[in-house]
Amino acid sequence: MTFQFNFTIVNHLENESVPLGDGALAVDSSKESSVSEGKHRDRKCSTEQFDLPQDHLLEHKQLGNATPSQDTDSSLTAANSSSNLEPQEEHPYIRVAKEHTVPEDLKKVLENKVIETLPGLQHVSVVKTILLKENFPGENIISQSFSSQSDLITGVYEGGLKIWECTFDLLAYFTKAKVKFVGKRVLDLGCGSGLLGIVAFKGGAKEIHFQDYNSLVIDEVTLPNVVANSTLEDKGNDVNEPDVKRCRKSEVAQELSKCRFFSGEWSEFCKLVLNSEKFFEKYDLILTSETIYNPDYYGTLHQTFLRLLDKNGRVLLASKAHYFGVGGGIHLFQKFVEERNVFETRTLEIIDKGLKRFLIEMTFK
Ligand SMILES: C[S@@+](CC[C@H](N)C(=O)[O-])C[C@H]1O[C@@H](n2cnc3c(N)ncnc32)[C@H](O)[C@@H]1O
């Protein structure tokens, strides 16, 4: 079955057809659970990494693999042009992280976007973007993903343009387990649409950071989604008085200042936030859905948790049991984590409908 719109909301929305826009992305939903195969994985590599955190966890030995990267995209930057804090000789190119600022004119962010409420998630609206590939010559992940008919292109496009199934599992868990966000520092890691972070935002989190591999995803999907879910939409539309409007705008800007947006590969993202001039406090909660499909990334991912999670914090991770084609999956990842002996993992829920899926929690030992 082929959907033709910017988001493929798999399984849950399989029967929801959306009108076509010219130039809209077509994604084959039948490939949802089997991510792109080895044909794109020609830069698979692994290295020992990186700078370890300056705390008690230093004593734990790190054996991670580095993330593969592939330079087919002009937005990639040579790694050796960035900070030399970390050895990266085996990666001539790596997707350097950057922070995306929220544009002042929020209306512009939503220009040409169609906002739709997700069925069953009335409190979260989702922006559907019309992505014309010629608008994004630098990061032509849309056309590449389309022409290769795959959901992921390792090191080029990591799947953030669509909403993956486990996101809904984690959202349901938040409600069921009454997960508290108030006052928490939250990271939506590998955010794609950013729904997990958005729920944390709406739930009163103190600060919410969104990270995706692709800057296009942040600019065209995550950021518009967050703006659409800020109170600007709820409050702003029916008001005409300039003073009231101005006041609401500044309220919204203040609210949005709790959110920060980052793109780039995980180790680069860690470097960016840890070395940033802005004060960085570790996260109380790291939310992450469908990010353990590729075993080559486990080292970097584990390292990211290790470096960015507060010692009393927890990771809530949602994943399919197995990712056919790429080889990752929950058991492999849990084994990897166990061997590093830094985190404890606990299975929160097993969803045995369709493809088996897991929700796990990770806390420091
Ligand atoms: C399959 S998508 C899942 C998106 C979203 N969490 C969801 O459930 O809909 C995987 C996400 O992980 C991120 N990701 C995967 N590998 C990464 C890496 N090595 N460095 C940075 N981000 C990565 C990508 O940005 C991508 O959005």
TrEMBL record:
Example of a GO biological process term: regulation of translation
A GO CC term attached to the entry: cytosol
Subcellular location: Cytoplasm, Cytosol; Nucleus, Nucleolus
Enzyme Commission number, as recorded: 2.1.1.85
InterPro entries for this protein: Methyltransf_16 (IPR019410), SAM-dependent_MTases_sf (IPR029063)
Keywords carried by this UniProt record: Acetylation, Cytoplasm, Methylation, Methyltransferase, Nucleus, Phosphoprotein, S-adenosyl-L-methionine, Transferase
Region feature Disordered, mapped onto this chain: 64-91
Reactions the enzyme catalyzes: L-histidyl-[protein] + S-adenosyl-L-methionine = N(tele)-methyl-L-histidyl-[protein] + S-adenosyl-L-homocysteine + H(+)
Domain of life: Eukaryota
Gene3D superfamilies referenced in this protein's UniProt entry, alphabetically: Vaccinia Virus protein VP39
Keyword Nucleotide-binding set for record: no
Family under the similarity heading: Belongs to the methyltransferase superfamily. METTL18 family.
Job description of the protein: Protein-L-histidine N-tele-methyltransferase that specifically monomethylates RPL3, thereby regulating translation elongation. Histidine methylation of RPL3 regulates translation elongation by slowing ribosome traversal on tyrosine codons: slower elongation provides enough time for proper folding of synthesized proteins and prevents cellular aggregation of tyrosine-rich proteins.
Subunit structure: Interacts with GRWD1 and members of the heat shock protein 90 and 70 families; these proteins may possibly be methylation substrates for the enzyme.
Protein name per the record: Histidine protein methyltransferase 1 homolog
Organism name: Canis lupus familiaris (Dog)
Gene responsible for this protein: METTL18
